[in-house]
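Listing S7. Sequence submitted for prediction.
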Amino acid sequence: MDKLVFRPYKRPNALYRLICFPWAGGNCSFFARWGEVFSSTIEVSVIRLPGRECRAKEPFAKDMTEVINEITSVLLKELQEKPFAFFGHSFGSYVSYALAVHLKEEYGLEPVHLFFSGAYGPKSEYFSVLSKLHEIEDTRILGYFEELGGVPPEFLQNEQITRRLLFTLKQDQKILRTYPLHDIRRKYFSCDVTCFNGSDEAKQDSEAWLAATSGDTAIYNLPGNHFYLLEPSNETFLIKHMTKCIENSDI
């Protein structure tokens, strides 16, 4: 549990669970403090995939099926106990969607809310680049992610860090290539779905994700680029809005 699921602020009496899924090449650090700042009614956990942080010596998952099976084996009992919501950013959104589909098909479980952040649809330019990462030169990949703003500039000056980052990005991208995201299920879920994007990025194709549910849907374009959520004011908006959505899910 502690390896896959990072939960620094345990709240056994919380009414809801929020499971967060980091972006490609990312780790738990950004979401770790959310467990402290969210309402006491919500317990926050972060998914930590193999190949990073305390799991750095473990082999990376070979495909999406392996990722979903591991998460399900660890979290299924907890997800059956209390209402839960998923928040994923970029690559993390795709993993959360795949997990939600699996839980629905195999166990009849559904989140009370799906929050997709920076998760552009299969027809967007971003998704096209991400799905072909293995064909792109390393210097172009680093330039692209530097432009997106998700990597501190000083990290990109360190050869050891950039080499590890590139390797992790490619491994995460390989996971993405093993899942048919072009086949987003229309009205597959009944829960509410919300998409968050950075307003500086064009052609996001977020509308594609809204077709996955018969529940209420919304799209919010917040100031910034792909990593808009790193801006404190945007992060505050996310936390307040998600808290409201989760706590009102039973109404």
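Caption to Listing S7: primary sequence and predicted structure tokens for the chain studied. Residues 159-177 form the longest helix (19 residues). The chain is about 40% helix and 15% strand.
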